[in-house]
Amino acid sequence: MASKFEIQGLNAWFGLKHVLKSINMKIEKNAVTAIIGPSGCGKTTFIRCLNRMHEITPGARVSGKVLFNGIDIYDNGVDPVIIRRKIGMVFQKPNPFPMMSIYDNVAAGLKLNGVRDKKILDAAVRRSLELANLWDEVKEDLNKSGASLSGGQQQRLCIARALAVEPEVILMDEPCSALDPIATAKIEALIRKLAENYTVVIVTHNMQQAARVSDYTAFLYLGELIEYGLTKQVFENPKHELTERYLTGEFG
Amino acid sequence: MDHYKLRVTKNRLTQFLVYLALFSALVPLFSILSEVIRKGFSTINFDFFVKPTPTVGEARGGVANAIQGTLITIGFASIIGVPIGLMSGIFLSEYGESKLSVAVRFLHDVLSGVPSIVIGVFAYALITRSIGFSVTAAAFALAIIMIPIVARTTEEALKLVPMSIREAAIALGIPRWKTTITVVLSGAKKAIATGILLSIARIAGESAPVLVSMGYWRWWFAGLDRPAANLALNVFIFAMSPFENWIALAWGSALVLILVVLGISVTARVFTRERY
Amino acid sequence: MKISQKISPFIRNLNIKSILQLKKHFKGDDIFKLVSALFASSIFLLLGLMVYELVKGSWLSIQTFGLNFIVGTTWDPAVSRIFGVLPLILGTLVTSAIALLIGVPISLGVGLALSEYAPKKFGVAVSFLVELLAAVPSVIYGLWGIFVLIPFLRDHVYPYLKAVFGFIPLFSGPIYGGGVLTGGIVLAIMIIPTVSAVMRDLFLAVPNSQREAMIALGATKWETVKTVISYARSGVIGAVILGLGRAVGETMAITMVIGNRFQVWPSSLFDAWYTMAAIIANELLEATYDLYISALINVGLILLFVTLIINILARLIVWRTLRLTRGIARE
Predict the structure, then answer these.
(1) Is B170 on the interface with C (CB under 8 A)?
(2) Signed CA dihedral, A47, A52, A55, A61: sign only
(3) Mutation to test the A interface, candidates C116, C117, C203, C217, most A Cβ within 10 Å
(4) Which residue of C35, C147, C156, C252 is the best one to mutate when testing the B interface, meaning the one whose CB has the most B CBs within 10 A?
(5) Are C267 and C288 members of one domain?
(6) Mean pLDDT of chain C
(7) Cβ within 8 Å of residue A190, ≥6 positions away
(8) End residue of a domain, out of C63, C86, C106
């Protein structure tokens, strides 16, 4: 089974601050990979390097290779606009477009790509909202503002929005940290379901969540990849002393 | 891929248009500044600052009387406008949540949107029709223009003074009103002074209200119930005249005006940026 | 009322003991609050007095002409002494419309350039320059308009416009350099600094999370910027209305370039015309009899009314959008 991502010697900087140090890792297709580690270890920066979002910050820099389906996304000829359609992202704080309706939020990505046919859009919106486990809750009110939903619903809306453009990968940056436990549980169930058809990479500061939800886990510390492997193995039999100390709550 | 190419083209085109807009907005600025400096500079000499307005036949002359008249008019306007604006600003910052404050702020906003010519007509109706075209009428009009500016900048300046200073003074037993007048006001005095200077810069450039409340005056100051010469108004009168020497004086006056007005504005902005 | 209750016992017992008692009751804070409130309340008096004086001054004109003043097209102070301002209202509206047509797209571009496109330091420096433009007095715009802009337009721009578009009546009249189009251009230049500064601030207030959401979907820069504009759209409308208010009230610069000719409709964009503000500036000092003066004050009253409505509208819309922006961000 070829890996979805092959990360080779990835380094990242914010100005002079060296935030990611020579990361080498694979990310497997149609599985959930959790990135864990204490605050400031570079997990968010790492995930943002996977869809070329890190570089939009002024002063941010990347070196190394990130092979996606075998092609280096940082290669000179590659347009990030195309990459980001294939690799979707959901953010820590839900950010639906408040000036658009629920329908328009989900359709936003499709409209960018020139889809105008109402029938196609209707079908795609419905499919995405169903995939995100939100359809039943909003099907009567598709014209309400995207911001009129609860926090958990907004996050599922953002997931639907990301799914509508049919990406291959979904990156999630601490998607539940702004949500209550019930909403969190709903999203965790959704993540397991999504893994059937998508490659999911999730950053989380909650170890238990990583253990519940992921197939593979990567542990980052101070910008370095300390350990990576099957979740079961990393949690039950960590190879590295640092991993064990983190998992037992000694720091972070 | 066709649609993709369209998107990329739109992206490049709009970037170009945005920078084109920026360029077209800056071209008039540079043109105005360079023309005023160029044409004004060649007019300015010693006579310019010392002699009064020349008569039609006279070759040389200056704007000394206009500078005098403008200073007196602005001074009089400030005597009326600054205290009212200052006290209003203090009220708005100390009792800012009251219904009165909300109404006052709204009305200040409304007043700042009234065209200066209308304010001039107001001064004409109220004052000029009783005591005639006069410095008093013009000063009244200019004071009205000043008040919302001074009030707003004073309120903002006072708000910037940290609560800890007020609390320390009150904890020492100083009554609230004394705290405001002494401690808080002195803490904000630079910002308040900047606001007052900005309002002066603003009224120094006003000519419409001066025109209709005071009219044109060619001589030296002759009393508060008579008109006085005005630098900004002179630019208008001289520019619209057919006389070469007057037109030259218009450019010279414009240069003085721009230096004063922009000088104060720049200093004020530099000062408010210093805080961050 | 607190104060009168404290005063009456004092008046009954005028002695030193009472004076000392009075001092205890009259707290400094109360006096201060009262005094500053009085000063602040002067705005009510000022605005009220303004409306009163303008209405009083217009009364003769209102009585004589009634609503015919607004729809009348004759302005004849010399012979028939009939005054009507429809052409002035039209002139004001048309020049302001031209100002918006030219000025709003440029202001939008400048606002976007300064918030979305320009690198930080460059943006700050250029913002500074643009704000300087806002401080230039109106007469100086007029002076530059007469001696720099008019010759330039007359010799290098209008002849080409006429050559290319001359088949449309708008572009077919004689060119002298000033006139309606020139007036609109000067007004546009004058409103750009203020309007673009407001737009820049509106765009800067849009939360970055909105931009990131669009970028993550695979949007180009322009597509992301469209979302920013959409988010701030009611504020953008408010800024445009604010610009309209400024254009309508502008006096000196427009009267120096527009030609000041009272006519119902200009023969072309290159023809001279007149606005409400300009006629007041030009004729109030020449007005020698009561009805003439009253007619001009009446024009001022109409101008006041129009700009009040425009400005209240603009501020309501801008306030609402800033509150909306902050409300969303808080969630």
Answers:
(1) no
(2) positive
(3) C217
(4) C252
(5) yes
(6) 89
(7) A132, A133, A156, A159
(8) C63
* Residue B84: closest C-alpha in chain C: C39
The model's pTM is: 0.90
C24 and C151, same domain (yes or no): no
Note down the domain range covering C272: 71-330
Question: Which subunits count as partners of chain C given 3+ CB pairs below 8 Å?
Answer: A, B
pLDDT tens figures, A189-199: 999 999 999 99
Q: Is the pLDDT of residue A175 over 60?
A: yes
Q: In Å, how far from its chain's centre is CA C39?
A: 26
Using the Cβ of C30 and the Cβ atoms of chain A, whether some distance falls under 8 Å is answered with no
What integer is the mean pLDDT of A177-182?
Answer: 91
Q: How many CB atoms lie within 10 A of CB A189?
A: 13
Write down the CATH number for the domain with range A5-247.
3.40.50.300
Task: Decide if A112 and B7 are in contact by the 8 Å CB cutoff.
Answer: yes
Structural contact between residues C140 and B258, judged by C-beta atoms closer than 8 angstroms: yes
| CA pair distance A91, A80, nearest whole angstrom | 18
Give domain B65-230's CATH architecture. Answer: Orthogonal Bundle (1.10)
Coil, strand or helix at A23: strand
The count of structural domains within chain C is: 2
B74 to chain C nearest CA, in Å? Answer: 15
Ordered by start, the domain boundaries in chain A are 5-247
Chain C residue at shortest CA distance from B132: C285
Contact between chains at C213 and A165 (C-beta distance less than 8 A): no
Contact assignment for A95 to C210 by CB distance below 8 Å: yes
What is the pairing mode between strands A199-203 and C75-76?
unpaired
- Could you tell me the two tokens for B150? 């001074």
Q: Which residues of C touch B125 (CB under 8 A)?
A: 53-54, 56-57, 297
Instruction: Note whether C230 and C93 are same-domain residues.
Output: yes
Distance from C-alpha of A175 to C-alpha of A188, rounded to nearest angstrom:
9
State the average pLDDT over residues C43-66: 96
